[in-house]
Amino acid sequence: MRAVVYRGVNDLRLEIVPVPRIGVNELLVKVAVCGVCPTDIKKIQHGLVPPPRIFGHETAGTIVKIGASGYKTQNSKFKIQNLKVGDRVALHHHVPCLDCHSCRHRAFAQCETYKRTGITAGFEPAGGGYAEFVRVMPFVLPGVVKIPAKNSFAEGAMLEPVNTVLKAVRRLNLLPGDAVLVAGQGPIGLMFTRILQLQGIRVLATDLLESRLKLAKKFGAKWTVRAGSARCADRTPQRGVPTNLDAAIIAVPSDDAVSEALQLVRGAGQVLLFAHTKRTAKSKVQSPKSKLPQRTVFSLDLASICLDEKDLIGSYSSDFTLQTEVARLVFSRRLDVRQLITHTFPLEQTAAAVTLAVRPTKDSLKILVRSDT
């Protein structure tokens, strides 16, 4: 089969590799589409994992083979729907154990079982969606979701990123009528805007691109402001735009956006980091008197956290227990993810798809790779 193999930093090659062999209680899925995700881009750009690997984890396709004993799971907490050859499905490459310390605290992304990747197209498991077929292992079978006949494979592939957004929203203590900043109106930011609006939240959307701000209005933003023009420090925001927010979601990896959000949120407000996923010295909070090298560009007034009772929190990856709710949200089209998909590349142009995702244009949002021929 054809697959795009990661061979080193920024080195993606279309190769012929064996179709994955499945074992007992496993599935073989013919990939239709797979989304291009910043998590994989980070690994490709910075060589964070050793090659060779086949990336791609926002995957949807058709079941073409089921292991000899069918599919079962030893974890009685999971409920698996009946699956059969020919079913159109969306896949979920991480599923937690639900029993460990992290899971009992609902910190599923910290679960050791969750950190294992249960879908592969060959080599060390890495999602495998940039290939024609993937093998689905038993421990992630509970994450398989059937795609209704009225919905597309592309909508199925969007379940995983939507899940990460809904999980993050659930980390916030929000009430209907609250005002929330969403910094960044790329595909993820627009999902935040729409999901918050559906919950009765008033959204202030910011971005550098006017085209994205216009789309944010369609997704339910009450106010749109070009990034950097509604600063709290000089108290000169646009007329009607609130400066005392209940929460802020930082959907771009910008330390400046975090600093500004901490000023804009009112006492007892929350600032949620969603895009700060690259570990660097620049993201460390450092005292001016520290003897450590002064490499940081981010400063934090700790008294604003303590005295003003503000929360600085993070959210990473998905929450498996939200899958059913996410499927209803997407497949009902209350969150119409089709509006977010702007480009679809054939498998042989995966490198070009990644390049566009790294350097988006004013017209590009969510990018998919089409694996079927």
Low-confidence stretches: 232-236, 290-296
CATH architecture of the largest domain: Alpha-Beta Complex
Beta content: 15-25%
CATH homologous superfamily label of the largest domain: Medium-chain alcohol dehydrogenases, catalytic domain
Question: Helix share of residues?
Answer: 10-25%
Q: How large is the radius of gyration?
A: 21 Å
Tell me, briefly, the overall form: globular
Average pLDDT number: 90
Q: CATH topology of the largest domain, which one?
A: Quinone Oxidoreductase, Chain A, domain 1
Number of domains: 2
* Helix count, DSSP H or I runs of 4 or more residues: 11
Total strands: the figure is 16
Q: Could you say which structural class the secondary elements and strand pairing correspond to?
A: alpha/beta
**So what's the CATH class of the largest domain?**
Alpha Beta
Write the layout of secondary structure elements.
Elements: E1 2-8, E2 11-16, E3 27-35, H1 38-46, E4 58-66, E5 88-90, H2 101-104, H3 112-115, E6 119-120, E7 133-136, E8 145-146, H4 153-157, H5 159-170, E9 179-183, H6 187-198, E10 202-207, H7 210-218, E11 223-226, E12 245-250, H8 255-264, E13 265-273, H9 302-306, E14 311-314, H10 323-331, E15 341-346, H11 350-358, E16 366-370
Parallel strand pairs: 9-10, 9-12, 10-11, 12-13, 13-14, 15-16
Antiparallel strand pairs: 1-2, 3-4, 3-7, 3-16, 4-5, 5-8, 6-7
Helix pairs in contact: 5-6, 5-10
